[in-house]
Amino acid sequence: MCKRIRFCWSTLLMVMLLASCSNDEYLNVIPKNSTAVIAIDLPGLTGEAKGVNGSLMKAWFHMSDASDCGIDMTAKVYLFEAPDGNLGMVMKVKDEDDVEEWLDKMARQGRCPKPQKRRGCHFTVLNRSWVAGFNDAAFMVMGPVVSADQAGLMRKMVKYLEAEEGIVDSPMFGKLAEIDSSVAMVAQAQALPDQFVSPFTLGAPAHTPLDQILIAAAMKVKDGCLLVDGNTFSFDEKVDAGLKSAHGVFRQVSGMFLNQLPADVLSCLMMNVDGTRLLPLMKQSESFRAMLTGMSVKIDIDGFVNRVDGDLLLAVPKVAGDKMQMGWAAQLKPDAQPLDVDSEAELARCRLTAADQMLPAAVLTQLKNSRMSLLVNLNGVDEEKKVVTDAFSSLLKPLFGEVRYILYYN
User: Fold this and answer.
1) In angstroms, rounded to a whole number, what is the distance separating the alpha carbons of residues 397 and 230?
2) Residues 133 and 262 in one domain
3) Among positive and negative, which fits the CA dihedral 16, 76, 190, 375?
4) 146 and 101 in one domain?
5) In this model, does residue 200 exceed pLDDT 90?
6) Does one domain contain both 156 and 186?
7) Is residue 199 part of a domain?
8) Where are the beta strands (DSSP E) in 105-224?
9) Cα–Cα distance, 296 to 319 (Å, whole number)
10) In sequence order, what are the beta bridge partners of 322?
């Protein structure tokens, strides 16, 4: 009797284990060393993205009815940035034959080449620059790539689709699973455009590699702005302690300078701080120093920051050549002493004034409700990352509509 009971329990446990592995098998194709991963719970989306399944499939794959395409629309969709910089998307396959039939139908309509089989996986190209591959577990899209590079990407994707271990068992994916949001993200700082990395490095020890600094965030869209509610962290204990210590330097923003941010601003950094506590963090951050060096201003930065006590706004209204033009507004200490004559003249030239056209109300509200925030206008991203951000925007559009700004805040 005891043997029979043990056998029954063992059998039940094995069935549960196999079912669990089967359910999550599609996640193994996400490259283990991805620099960013976003999880999208389609059935759980609310607000502006509620009921998006049909429009998403229509926009991404020119499909009017997603019910018989072979893809499981109840499972989470994952977006990622691969180690080589390509973007990717993974969806769970419900029926491999239905996926093949759907793509064959698209091929007959001239929307993609007929799927070809490679080592047990099927491949085609969507919208001329996105390579799509699938097997009985996962449907994967990667790109964008030009025609000459598509064969090489297919070879990489075969390895991903055949992988028995992917990102699932990594600390990065574990962190992603902890975020309670329909759209959640974990990303390394190195996945971001260079000119926007600096705020995330504040508090990290000098010379910390950017792949050791990560951002965990919940995301939603309002009024054309992707709102990213996040925090920096690290799996390295020393780096993580420094980042968490820096969080305590920031205070609630009062919002007194919000009317000085024009709607076409390229980027801005806003915080409320005592400058004497911010300065040491800035000095040990190579990225922050590089950002200030890249701005075409010649002022005593240390002296300026030391005078701040309250809201601090650093904005990039425009870029001239390879130099960012800085604008600023700040609450200064009552007893703040003037800087040298040249610095004061430069500060007067760069001081922000009331904007003719302000940012959307949802953006202004979130800026005011933050302790530290970074706003990015996607139209102003540097050329090196613009291909990636444009592709990222095209993936988000079916979910949230047109996204013009990204606002990170905590």
Assistant:
1) 21
2) no
3) negative
4) yes
5) yes
6) no
7) yes
8) 116-118, 121-126, 130-134, 138-143, 183-188, 214-222
9) 9
10) none
Q: Is residue 169 part of a domain?
A: no
For the stretch 387-408, pLDDT in tens is 666 666 666 676 677 788 889 9
* Structure-token match 């109840």, residue found: 74
Both tokens of residue 405? 């700004």
The whole-model pTM stands at 0.84
Shared domain for 31 and 85, answered yes or no, is yes
Residues in CB range of 4: below 8 A, 6 or more apart: none
**Average confidence (pLDDT) over 96-122:** 92
Alpha carbon distance 233, 199 (integer Å): 13
Q: How far apart are the C-alpha atoms of 6 and 1, rounded to whole Å?
A: 9
Contact between residue 32 and residue 166 where contact means Cβ atoms under 8 Å apart: yes
> Are residues 194 and 326 both part of a single domain?
yes
* Sign of the C-alpha dihedral computed for residues 108, 112, 116 and 120 taken in this order: negative
Q: What does the DSSP 8-state code read for residue 355?
A: -
Q: Is residue 173 part of a domain?
A: no
Of the candidates 348, 352, 188, 201, the one whose C-alpha atom is nearest the C-alpha of residue 268 is 352
In a domain, 11, yes or no: no
Give CA–CA dist 263/317, Å, rounded: 10
Which residues make Cβ contacts (< 8 Å) with residue 110, sequence separation at least 6? none
Q: Which residues of 48-68 are buried (b: 16+ CB within 10 A; e: fewer)?
A: ebeebbeebbeebbebeebee
Residues 129 and 187 in one domain: no
Structure tokens belonging to residue 223: 């009024």
At 112, which amino acid appears?
A: C
**In this predicted model, which residue has the larger pLDDT, 296 or 358?**
358
Whether the CB-CB separation of 311 and 329 falls below 8 Å is answered with yes
Q: For tokens 């949802």, what's the residue?
A: 362
Cα separation, 204 vs 238, in Å, equals 8
Give how many domains the chain has, as a whole number: 2
Which token pair is 391?
């592709």
User: Residues 258-306: pLDDT tens digits?
Assistant: 999 988 888 899 999 999 999 999 989 888 877 776 665 678 888 999 9
